[in-house]
């Protein structure tokens, strides 16, 4: 069949979506009745969709999200001060395109990490680059990068990421070098990219937590000034779910 050499050439040109669609057309009697332009259009659509799916999967792998979550999975039945309209607006992603920030705060177990990962997943769907870090891990990676000479490269990578998620903010007070590293990361991103921070510590305590007033002022000015804020309340969802399972058993 002439189709096989054509499919081989398409794969050699990395047009795998078109190759697979051409193979499917060979087994669809209705496709034989289409004009050349119609069949070509379907093949082009298949290639575009395949590339979009490959990009999405690559972005999702590179994001390294801690939890597999999506906006559709968010639980609004648990009373924690979470509003559906606000999350719908954030999931649309305009704040990322406008290079704004988002601060998620609340007690442990109220779903901050889940919400952060859901918004990160949605950003990947929209073709945006995302990177998830626990803040202590980011500090460690920056320390190691400084030691092996890759510090400038890591800073450039972080600066280009369209949504940077910093989870577990405020678990431990940063040392002087960590404060400086954090300022460098946020300075590169300020006004150019979006950052999402998740913390148990209320925003009003961040300045004292960071220490060293001048650096704390600079960090918070770049992070909180243009940020959307969600403050979750209520009991731990994990504890409530475990209690419900115990009652059912």
Give a description of the structure.
With 249 residues, the chain is an alpha/beta fold. It has two domains: 3-62, no CATH class; 65-233, P-loop containing nucleotide triphosphate hydrolases (Rossmann fold, 3-Layer(aba) Sandwich), CATH 3.40.50. 58% of the residues lie in helices and 11% in strands. The chain contains 13 helices and five strands. The chain has helices at 3-12, 16-26, 29-32, 36-63, 84-91, 94-97, 112-125, 135-148, 151-160, 176-189, 206-210, 213-223, 237-248; strands at residues 101-105, 130-134, 163-169, 194-199, 227-231. The chain has a five-stranded parallel sheet. The longest helix is centred in the N-terminal third of the chain and has 28 residues, at 36-63. Mean pLDDT is 87; it is low at 242-249.
Question: Which SSEs are present, and which pair or pack?
Answer:
Blueprint: H1 3-12, H2 16-26, H3 29-32, H4 36-63, H5 84-91, H6 94-97, E1 101-105, H7 112-125, E2 130-134, H8 135-148, H9 151-160, E3 163-169, H10 176-189, E4 194-199, H11 206-210, H12 213-223, E5 227-231, H13 237-248
Parallel strand pairs: 1-4, 1-5, 2-3, 3-4
Helix pairs in contact: 1-2, 2-4, 4-7, 8-9, 9-10, 10-12
